[in-house]
UniProtKB/TrEMBL annotation:
Classification lineage: Bacteria, Bacillati, Bacillota, Bacilli, Bacillales
Superkingdom per UniProt: Bacteria
Alphabetized Gene3D superfamilies for the sequence: Divalent-metal-dependent TIM barrel enzymes (3.20.20.150)
Entry protein name: Xylose isomerase
InterPro entries in the record: Xyl_isomerase-like_sf
């Protein structure tokens, strides 16, 4: 729901039900958000049923105890999975591997799928260390937001060494967060660069293909159109966003459908 903040160009903030209605009417099938505050959970559950939307949770754990509480809340809300931006970027090496292993154990114990997001400023700060974690932890699964690594590494062009590392992360992907980075901006329009767009489509298609290799009946691969408001969104001097994020989200969904068709056919 972060991507629904200020999504109307007029600047008028939509009511919660208006956001649900807009999402469902556009053909989306699920929502990603933090677990709602206790006082609003009944309303959320009512709207989820009314608009037939699935629910995935955002979490920001520092340790296994944090995650355990967040997984329990997610289970109470009948969420499908929990996405984790794991703190923080200054935990590295064996300490980071130990923490991720503990988080995975909590997920297994509580029977709630948990996927670690590839995100700057978190334990997965950069591509190299994230691959090291994957190599050390065979069961570690990711929420793939590849835009963070493209901008962190200023990957304005294809880099052979990076592509080799990306393969490891793509092969462990269980959720995809879609956003296109230029390598200098974290979030640009779909039409910014045909060459950059093609690279993201290739990564997403590969991740889908890897996922399909191990998928079991009933498994899902969420593809989240995660276009953030300012300061993720680029604005003009007056503070107005230069892009229409809603239209861009629809474009990303269309791209995802194309990537999926290619992944299935291959």
């Amino acid at each position: 729901m972060w991507a629904m903040m200020g999504v109307v160009p007029s600047g008028t903030e939509l009511l919660l039900e208006e956001k649900f209605e807009r999402i469902a009417d556009a053909g989306f099938t699920g929502i990603l958000a933090r677990v709602p505050e206790a006082g609003s959970r009944d309303e959320w559950q009512k709207l989820l049923r009314q608009y037939n939307l699935s629910f995935g949770a955002h979490s920001f754990p520092f340790n296994a105890h944090d995650l355990s509480l967040q997984l329990q809340q997610a289970d109470d809300m009948e969420m499908l999975y929990v996405n984790g931006q794991v703190a923080d970027a200054f935990i590295i090496g064996d300490e980071a591997i130990k923490l991720l292993d503990e988080l995975g154990a909590v997920s297994t114990e509580q029977r709630m799928p948990f996927f670690v997001e590839t995100h700057r400023g978190k334990i997965t700060q950069d591509l190299i260390r994230t691959v090291q974690y994957a190599e050390a932890l065979p069961d570690l699964r990711f929420t793939l937001d590849i835009s963070h690594y493209v901008v962190a590494g200023e990957m304005t062009e294809e880099q052979e060494k990076a592509e080799h590392l990306f393969e490891t992360v793509l092969a462990r992907t269980s959720v995809i967060h879609s956003r296109i980075s230029s390598g200098e901006q974290i979030q640009v329009d779909v039409g910014y660069s045909d060459a950059m767009l093609a690279r993201f489509e290739t990564w997403w298609t590969k991740a889908m293909r890897y996922w399909l290799q191990d998928a079991q009946p009933g498994d899902i691969l969420p593809f989240v159109c995660e276009l953030g408001p300012a300061p993720y969104a680029i604005t003009g001097q007056g503070g107005q966003e230069l892009s229409n994020r809603w239209e861009q989200a629809l474009a990303l969904r269309s791209l995802a459908q194309g990537c999926w068709k290619r992944a299935v056919s291959e």
